């Protein structure tokens, strides 16, 4: 959209010249809560900078909500949103800078040009469904999807404005009982049962947005918001004018019961084009991945290194839930939409995999009687997503279990990559991620499918043991020994027996309202629940015995903290500032009840942290790797830093010999020496059809004996020699 000059009577009259280091060049638009300006970064990138109005900046509660908006927007930055570049919620006039997206809003496009053609509408449907899929995988519910919050650049639709978004456990009402949102695009449960609102509310809004795009009006139309609210709850949606081939799908999105609405993945799957005209407008869909054979992993010589009239805004209505919302869930991105946890040596299932097991031939100079044989298991069909793998056991034999979105689960022999068995469950199973989470625990295998249903299977045959609807719980199950830990709607903690699904214990923990689990320590049997205050100034941490539910210790610590690991009996937590940047670590020793703060030498954006002995290793998504000494009194804290030149990374894992491994978005697997901070080696990129896919999170590699097992966007699973990264 063209910039608007700062004239007129709207609050742009305040017109600050700068937001932080960014000079504000022109006004892109103004709303009741703030003004969006055009600006440029030091490198020349065009930015859209939202600056909060002065009267709202004086409200501490509003500032807290703005901090949450920044945190939510950072979490979902990706291919379908405007990425956050910088922010300062603590400034005199709080502001947030995102990448400027040149293009009109859907509202402006329809107003100027009329309803979309059927082919354009199908393209919009697919793009918005994919956007919601990534937003929900990040653990966020948008709650205000509407035509003015959808931008239409040439690269496909972008969803903006996370001003009233919340993590899955949030409350939709303010203390005064006011509803927040836009009534024509709010789901029935937002009016009736605000505490039960989940991702399905965004799907309802998607249906309403599609009706507007197809007809120029909404499915519930009235000048009175109160009448619209009544229609949303009680009346059938008016789908007149929606193309006949899309009307049934849109109608399902607008179902009164959240459980009757399709998931974003199901919407995308339903959009197989009926004609060549439509096919030209639909993004390539991910198809189920099958494996026809285990093929040699042939190397190549070269290795590649890797706003609108209505601006984004914040609403004054709606309080920040206890727990600092988006921040406390940031370490469980993949676990919400489709989290797969593989429990004790077996796996449940979904998908048709197969293979001959032919190993990859080794280079002649490396062959010997004890030579390691790399392997690669390749998909037989196009489509699918990056698999996520987890180590386990089948009886006394080691096993590897992998799940891929849309294709299901396969048990692989880790010695040669040969598929042993595969299973396919319900239609939603395995249909989520670039990287559903995987783990091993207990004596059963389970998966959380879209919608919150848990299905548990026997490890040997993959037969179903039990299933349970956990959509009413605040988060996906957290594996802890032979238990699955969950948080109830009332904030109470509960443990389910992984083998039977029955409750082992249930306990309300004083001080917690909506906690989350971030860490389980097998050596001590302790699981750590945590919850940040609404203002983000303190965090309540509780160590719980996973087997009994007994509280081992509890402490409220200063700062916005997240448990990250343990070292020498102490708990290590990452500490974030008001800009949602990681600025340091906190070491808490429960014996003497002593908290020690370890500042980082620079601020990091969303690093994943792994603890190895007395060293914490923080890997930023932008590729910066920092090693920090966490021993009490160690100075300086920084041991080394390494710029890996990787733009997007997985969480790192540490293996034998002091080696750290992580994956890149292009399918590379990298190894780093944790003693000296040097890059030891990397595999070649493995892209799907030569294209880089976009993902909100990447699966971590697996270290299993001498093998380091990686996964890639081409749907492959591959193993390389942990002892010889220089020849990967």
From TrEMBL:
Ranges of compositional bias, category Basic and acidic residues: 297-313
Signal peptide: none
Chain spans, region Disordered: 297-325, 412-441
Record PROSITE patterns: PROTEIN_KINASE_ATP, PROTEIN_KINASE_DOM, PROTEIN_KINASE_ST
Source domain of life: Bacteria
Residues annotated to bind ATP: 50
Keywords annotated in UniProt: ATP-binding, Kinase, Nucleotide-binding, Transferase
Gene3D superfamilies: Phosphorylase Kinase, domain 1, Transferase(Phosphotransferase) domain 1, YVTN repeat-like/Quinoprotein amine dehydrogenase
UniProt keyword ATP-binding present: yes
Protein's name in the database: PQQ-binding-like beta-propeller repeat protein
